[in-house]
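Q: Protein A?
A:
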Amino acid sequence: MTGGRRADANAGVSTYLALACTNRVVAPRSKLAFADWWSATAGARVTRVPWAALDHRWFWDAMDAVDQAALTSVERWLAAAMAAEFGLGLSSMALDMTNFATYIDSGNEKAPAAQRGHAKQKRTDLRLVGLGMVVTRDGGVPLVGHVYPGIRNDVTIFPEVIDELVARYRGLAAEDQDLTVAFDAGQNSADNFTHLVSAGLQFAGSLPPSDYPDLLALPSSRLTPVDAERFPGLTGHDTRAEALGAGRRVILTHSATLHAKQSRGFDQTTGKAVRKLAELAARLERGRTRRDKAAVEAEITKITRPRWLNRVITTTLAGDKPSQLRLTWTVHDAARRELEAELSGKWILVTSRDDWPAPEVVAGYRSQSDAEAGFRPLKDPHVVSFSPMHHWTDHKIRVHVSYCVTALAIAHLMRRQARHEGLDMSVRVLLAELAGIQETVLLYPSTGGRPRARRMLTEMTPTQQHLYEIFGLDRYAPAR
């Protein structure tokens, strides 16, 4: 798929892609720093990749040799191989999108994938590369990674990601197997829901609760436990409603845990607003303002702007001249209780799966958090990282993203395998434990010639020993 090696190359294109994936999993580095990192590992002994092959220019030449068609073929082949080799469940997947800040120069016209837009990392000064990713509900393994210009929003890119998912899925699953896709409200639109139906996909998503006041007004007595064992403290009401152009099944849920968190968060928001109002009132009381009444009212509006505060706090600004302005306010406890009863802890799920029981719909939707969790390592500079990205052309960016997503898939497959063997840990912890299994070289004096060298593994903790056995690392351990 990637073609053979060049006559003057020290390794094939596929070897360079595999090396790049390995580095992203173990210790993300730039291609310029790759050789120094590789020399401090056992990689050279295990793979016998020649030192001359590790020059950063060979990596870049290899990336140039993989066109978009070949890259797509490689990604689809890897997705099929992972699903078959590890028996991944493919009936339900989760989709999410994000973007990554890059340091590509503003005048660089060779990277149209990097554009300024809504920066989810808050780096509004940098150009962005968008990534749509679909992961399996079974293990959170990414099977689709779609690069798009950072200027495009999630709603417009959604159909492209879905089409690529369908193209890959039809090659993996049985023809009569349904696929359910979970996604958050950021991808909602009537056109996107129609596109899902035309693509033959089922879905589990969410709706903005404030758009459905009739559902929010239902008394708590109408909500029953969803599944006390799987989802303790979660109650719900299963019904139908008009949603995005059609009548659909919706489930109003209330989580006691989420309710408590939102209540604490609103306490903090209210307390912050009250402190600012008190400071403003004190300044006005001292006559320390030259601003007119309209300017002071604008400041009050800014203080009480956070969501729902205007339902709980009322303010009165008396006087007309700056020296006469006086501020009073009231926090209405009854209004606060009504607000909590109406909104706190509530979520509205929407699905095309009329045949699923409510607990399965909840579980399907919550799998979307696996996709969100998958982005966290990609934004961590030390774990399966998207950064540092030292590529300045559109094509190299796409290849870079491709092997980053493959590296993330490898890490999650490792985590999934470890969990099946009784070790439930995050990707970060798993990789940290494996990094602690190290190889050392002991030098012994000899009667003549060079000292004798003996390679051996350092002492392992019980967890490391377990991981050593799970992944069969004895195959790569130094022989005595």
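Q: Protein B?
A:
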Amino acid sequence: MASPTPTRYKFIFFTPPQYLEELKTAIFATGAGTYQNYSECMFMMPGIGQFRPGDNSNAFIGTKGQLEEVSEVRCEMVCQTKEITEKSVEALKK
């Protein structure tokens, strides 16, 4: 009988480049980005994000009602458990 395939979660977030190193450190500390015998595994891709803050927004970047374009990095990693995924989300929020 074959052993069941383990459940994994893909954790994806976007960040301005200036916060990338700080976020990687915090998120990797939760155990995210571990795959087999490797740690701190992550795919990163730079790009341009676009958004328009609404009237009820509490925008970290940008002005309400004005279209913004900012440099961002898309980050993807695997989390081996639901608990690691939840801890990663909390680390990202801090």
